[in-house]
Specification:
The protein is 40% helix and 22% strand. It contains seven helices and seven strands. A seven-stranded mixed beta sheet has the order 3-2-1-4-5-7-6, with helices on both faces. A hairpin with a 5-residue loop joins β6 and β7. The longest helix is centred in the C-terminal third of the chain and has 16 residues. It is globular and about 45 Å long. 41% of the residues are buried. The structure holds S-adenosyl-L-homocysteine and magnesium ion. The site of magnesium ion has 4 residues, from loops.
Length: 197
């Protein structure tokens, strides 16, 4: 994969208003992933494959990424993009709803990137914790959701999302096996390191 190809995929995604990972969020994750050298990464929410491609350069030599997407059009684009940059043997797409796919996965992961339906974050957390190695990291994007999560905002159609994001924060904060920080980069990024089981 070269930089130019990745940049074109990024610009096309932005043009189509696909909510790809923000640069400052990626910068923070890059620091952790460089240290971690993950062998296996789980991603929930592939979109067109942009973030998975970015993460691929931090994998250990034989490392792979499992990524889940339910939207058929995006799956199609992601496959094309992944092929274009020659990462077919590094990135495996699981097609379907993560709520159904996660329970049938049984791998061990060094890193998880949660970036899909906000109302499902507590469920994604439970499934991620089940498969996370000790010293592994769970990153959750959009955790502050435009500031709604930390304000007294609880109206409108985002209410369920906000309630579940708050629940996610509560669970990672109270879990004594995790070391957690929440950063105001991008749309909010939660980082939880599993210290012990
Ligand atoms: N991680 C991507 C962006 C993901 S955008 C990047 O940074 O490049 C969120 C994606 O999650 C959307 O494409 C949406 O279709 C998908 N999604 C949302 N809920 C999902 C679910 N329950 N199961 C599978 N995919 C889901
Ligand atoms: Mg996101």
């Amino acid at each position: 994969m070269n930089k130019e190809e990745l940049e074109i995929i990024k610009q096309n995604a932005l043009k189509e208003h696909i909510p790809i990972i923000m640069d400052d969020t990626l910068d923070v994750m890059a620091k952790y992933l460089t240290q971690l050298k993950p062998n296996r990464i789980l991603e929930i929410g592939t979109a067109v494959g942009y973030s998975a491609m970015c993460f691929s350069k931090f994998l250990s030599k034989d490392g792979v990424i499992d990524t889940i997407e339910r939207d058929e059009e995006r799956i199609k684009q992601a496959k094309e993009n992944i092929k274009k940059v020659g990462l077919e043997d590094k990135i495996k797409i699981y097609e379907g709803d993560a709520v159904e796919i996660l329970p049938i996965l049984n791998e061990k992961y060094d890193a998880v990137f949660i970036d899909a339906a906000k109302g499902k974050y507590p469920f994604f957390l439970k499934e991620s914790l089940r498969m996370l190695n000790v010293n592994g990291i769970i990153f959750a994007d959009n955790i502050l959701y435009k500031g709604y999560v930390m304000s007294d905002y609880n109206k409108h159609k985002q209410r369920t999302a906000v309630r579940n994001l708050r629940e996610y924060i509560k669970e990672i904060s109270e879990n004594t096996n995790l070391e957690t920080e929440i950063l105001e980069v991008g749309d909010g990024l939660a980082i939880s390191i599993m210290k012990e089981r």
